[in-house]
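re: that chain from earlier
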Amino acid sequence: MYRHTQFSWAIMAILAWVASFLILATWLLGYNVMVLVFAIILAILCCTFYALTIEVNKEKRTLSWWFGPGVAKKTLNFEDITEIKGVTNSFRHGVGMRITNDGWVYSASGFSAIEVSLPDGMKYRLGTNDQANLLSALSEKIASAD
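^ sequence. v structure.
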């Protein structure tokens, strides 16, 4: 079984930047309910998107990924995958979880990723800083896709 967790330093940097405005608002406005609510939302985002984990379970023949403690978890059976290849994301793919012209993107930080294609045309780009080992763990599926 392959499992790799990548810390979301890019997401944490963005949230820290937003938190600096929260500190400024607290200094200028004093403590009020809206500042407290925004601080709670920011803390929830930090706890939710602190890392992206990708798991390949060869016994169950599944590929799974999720953010933080299991948020937005997605699992695909090997039989449902038509193609897997290494790709490089660009700035337009961003970080976090989003839909683009290339399909769904799940990325913690950096540009290295794998692209997983399904029979219905849906594609998932999974960001990873361990692309070679992830592709190696999926080598059985890559070979059977040809």
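The mean pLDDT is 90.
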